[in-house]
């Protein structure tokens, strides 16, 4: 799975990481739905850190992204506009 973080690049995550990725994304969705600013910051940082722990795709190599995450400086109100009932990661 290829995940892009806007403004940072792409990371490749092993397919067996999808359940963990969805769990972290679910925590973010809950915090955003509750309007919990502190929970949002914690969950969003955890999601970005999880993705960044994958294998960085060289900038000169372009792949279609399976998921695209907003930049790390996104606000809770911006995130509310992006998240559906499924979070940011489909699946």
Low-confidence stretches: none
Q: Report the helical percentage.
A: 40-55%
Radius of gyration equals 12 Å
Question: Quick check: average pLDDT?
Answer: 91
Dominant shape: globular
Number of helical regions: 3
Strand order of the largest sheet: 3-2-1-4
Number of strands: 4
Tell me the distance between the termini: 12 Å
**Which percent range describes the beta-strand content?**
15-25%
Largest sheet, if any?
A: 4 strands, mixed
Structural class: alpha+beta
Element pattern in H and E: EEHHEEH
Protein architecture, described:
This protein is α+β, with helices and mostly antiparallel strands and 91 residues long. It is 44% helix and 15% strand. The protein is built from 3 helices and 4 strands. It has helices at residues 18-34, 37-52, 76-82; strands at 2-5, 9-12, 55-57, 67-69. The protein has a 4-stranded mixed β-sheet, with helices on one face. A hairpin with a 3-residue loop joins strand 1 and strand 2. Helix 1 (18-34) runs antiparallel to helix 2. The radius of gyration is 12 Å and the shape is globular.
């Amino acid at each position: 799975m290829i995940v892009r973080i806007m403004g940072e690049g792409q990371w490749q995550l092993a397919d067996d990481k999808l359940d963990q990725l969805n769990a972290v994304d679910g925590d973010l969705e809950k915090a955003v739905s509750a309007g919990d600013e502190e929970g949002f910051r914690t969950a969003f940082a955890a999601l970005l850190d999880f993705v960044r722990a994958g294998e960085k795709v060289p900038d000169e190599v372009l792949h279609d992204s399976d998921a695209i995450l907003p930049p790390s400086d996104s606000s809770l109100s911006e995130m509310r506009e992006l998240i559906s009932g499924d979070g940011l990661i489909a699946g």
